[in-house]
Design a protein that fits this description.
mainly beta; 4-stranded antiparallel β-sheet; 32 strands; globular
């Protein structure tokens, strides 16, 4: 399993900084800090070429920083710093509504995650959803960073402080779930207990659904939390640090994790063939039991900072988004 290909768009750093990747049909859609791109990958030649058929530049809103790309059964949803763009395989549609962190379809409506909260589209109008369950850190808790519909049909939201759930049919909100954290006031540090096993600190980078195991993959700045949406939790963490105050001085104390990671910050996670893959700012890590293997610039990646993943079962290739371009790992080995 090696890095068999790389791709950079050129122009400037923003054009090569990949923020999201998704395979829709045979086209690899790539979001960057500058625009949305469309590529075709030839696994025999191990080369990329522009996909002119999708006419991606014809879609309004594609000339902005892409925050996420979501593949749904019938369409592709692209969140940007200007709004969103939809693609059904033939035509594009878009709406300029300001910065969006994430976007999905739930109960036949569009839902968007913003730094000010959650909104859904009713008819032609956007409606702000009040989150009644926020009790701690209301400012950070209202900054919704990622959305996912769990295997139980519940909408899950990841914020800068914890996660929330909403069931549209019953119009019922679940309580705010958060892990252990620290409060710092006037240089006084207090350690607080959480009401769940969400990773320490509670800053969620993204939430995805693991289709193989029907569980939520919650990527945080201190590791990965795997959650069944009810009461079963599993944590995958590298070593991380917390603050301590001794004699009026702040010091950092290392906490031991349960796997070896180049960085505690997990940016993206996926199960592929029974293997857990974790993206971090220090590399892409393959986790099998207690064994890990890290892929980074030493393996031919354009950069070690990993932002996104997309698996192509047809060619058994893993497309890896980094802060300086794309990498392709192939073949992606399954669990031994």
């Amino acid at each position: 399993m090696t890095c068999v290909a790389t791709h950079q768009f050129g122009g400037d750093e923003r054009a090569d900084h990949v923020t999201a990747v998704a395979l829709f049909g045979q086209t690899l859609f790539v979001g960057t800090k500058k625009r949305l791109e469309a590529l075709i990958y030839d696994p025999k030649e191990k080369k990329f070429a522009p996909d002119t058929e999708s006419k991606v530049q014809g879609g309004s809103g594609t000339g902005f920083e892409v925050t996420n790309i979501r593949k749904e059964p019938k369409q592709l949803l692209v969140s940007t710093m200007d709004g969103y763009t939809l693609y059904d395989g033939k035509s594009w549609s878009s709406e300029s509504v300001g910065p969006i962190n994430d976007l999905l379809t739930y109960e036949d409506r569009l839902w968007i995650a913003r730094n000010r909260g959650l909104e859904d589209k009713v008819g032609q109008d956007w409606k702000e959803q009040k989150i009644p369950s926020i009790k701690l850190n209301p400012t950070r808790s209202s900054r919704i960073r990622s959305l996912a519909v769990g295997p139980d049909g519940v909408l899950w939201m990841g914020s800068e402080f914890g996660i929330y759930s909403f069931t549209a049919k019953e119009k019922r909100w679940g309580g705010q779930l958060y892990g252990d954290y620290q409060n710092i006031l006037n240089d006084i540090i207090t350690n607080e207990k959480g009401n769940s096993q969400l990773c320490f600190g509670n800053l969620v980078n993204r939430i995805d659904v693991d289709a193989e195991n029907q569980k939520l993959l919650i990527c945080t700045e201190t590791g990965l939390s795997i959650f069944d949406g009810k009461d079963q939790w599993k944590t995958v963490q590298g070593d991380y640090e917390i603050l301590s105050s001794e004699e009026g001085r702040k010091t950092r104390v290392k906490k031991k994790g349960n796997v070896e990671l180049p960085s505690p910050n997990v940016t993206v996670a996926a199960y592929i063939g029974g293997i857990l893959w974790l993206g971090t700012p220090g590399g892409l890590v393959r986790v099998e039991g207690d064994k890990t293997e890290c892929f980074d610039t030493g393996n031919g990646f354009p950069a070690s900072a990993i932002t996104s993943l997309a698996h192509d079962p047809a060619s058994n290739s893993l497309f890896v988004g980094t802060e300086k371009g794309l990498a392709v790992l192939s073949p992606v080995s399954a669990a031994s």
